[in-house]
């Protein structure tokens, strides 16, 4: 395997377009409904495979029907699920996402088995053998905030493994705990709200610099339609978003992470890799669901012009 994704695994049930929730037992006809493998580990894993990487994923799902679907669709997309733990008696994490006509995505969510993930669920030997590890949703899989896991991350980083981290929630207490991972990762990729909540800063640049001071090599704050801000010890640079017809913003952050990490694995510098992430996010925004619109690396890079 080239990459291991570790953390949050979710089944998304999406419908669009939804401009209101009907009252009582009324029915609203929609254009499209999809079920997808999503979450900051599972969704990113699917996108990484589409961009040409071989990927194994680690975390937990329930032993329910949603878990069966999640495992099946990940395997169908080419993700190695042999280290994805199935929890007896627990529910697989899931979200219901009514997508607004402008691509916005309110959600109804059950965290399920993600909350029970611990270091004991991971395979350290596999993690020692990959070129990159993506930590997806360490604010929710808070059981991974384990000194033994931190020691493993330090060990593999010292051997040249690249470690990236994305977040899931916008809950200050959980995000605050996730800061403990920052000395042990290379790049952290929060969205604007997460960066501000993690640090209490008054603006994105200040927040990114505060996170950078915790120890990573770079902080990339995604800003939605405004693009992203890349902050390293060498300075800060804005990377503009690409103009596309937005159908659904679900999974754009996961796609950005997948594109960015793919760029790094292809030897690109941080800013170029951020542009690869921008292109992947733009592709996903054109369809419904966390993997929609993303086909392969070549077509993704052509989005950059």
From TrEMBL:
GO terms for molecular function: kinase activity. Residues 11-291 form the Carbohydrate kinase PfkB domain. GO terms for cellular component: cytosol. Keywords: Kinase, Transferase. One of its GO terms (biological process) is phosphate-containing compound metabolic process. The keyword Electron transport does not apply. It holds the Pfam family PfkB. This is Sugar/nucleoside kinase (Ribokinase family). The lineage of its organism: Bacteria, Bacillati, Actinomycetota, Actinomycetes, Streptosporangiales.
């Amino acid at each position: 395997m080239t990459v291991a994704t570790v953390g949050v695994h979710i089944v998304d049930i999406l419908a669009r377009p939804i401009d209101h929730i009907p009252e009582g037992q009324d029915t609203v006809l929609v254009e499209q409904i999809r079920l997808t493998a999503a979450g900051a580990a599972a969704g990113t894993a699917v996108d990484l495979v589409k961009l040409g990487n071989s990927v194994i994923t680690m975390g937990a799902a329930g032993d329910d029907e949603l878990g069966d679907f999640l495992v099946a669709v990940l395997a169908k997309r080419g993700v190695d699920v042999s280290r994805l733990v199935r929890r007896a008696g627990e529910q697989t994490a899931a979200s219901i996402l009514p997508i607004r006509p402008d691509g916005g995505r309110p959600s109804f969510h059950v965290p399920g088995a993600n909350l029970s993930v611990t270091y004991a669920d991971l395979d350290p030997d596999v993690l020692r053998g990959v070129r990159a590890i993506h930590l997806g949703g360490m604010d929710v899989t808070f059981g991974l905030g384990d000194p033994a896991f931190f020691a493993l991350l330090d060990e593999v980083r010292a051997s040249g493994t690249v470690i990236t981290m994305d977040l899931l929630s916008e809950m200050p207490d959980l995000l605050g705990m996730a800061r403990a991972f920052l000395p042990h990762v290379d790049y952290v990729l929060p969205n604007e709200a997460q960066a501000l909540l993690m640090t209490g800063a008054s603006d994105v640049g200040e927040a990114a610099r505060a996170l950078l001071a915790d120890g990573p090599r770079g902080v990339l704050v995604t800003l939605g339609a405004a693009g992203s801000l890349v902050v390293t010890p060498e300075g800060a640079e804005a990377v503009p978003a690409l103009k596309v017809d937005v159908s659904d913003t679900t999974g754009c952050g996961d796609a950005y992470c997948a594109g960015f990490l793919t760029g790094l694995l292809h030897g690109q510098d941080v800013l170029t890799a951020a542009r690869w992430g921008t292109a992947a996010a733009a592709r996903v925004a054109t369809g419904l669901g966390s993997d929609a619109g993303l086909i392969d690396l070549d077509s993704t890079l052509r989005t950059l012009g």
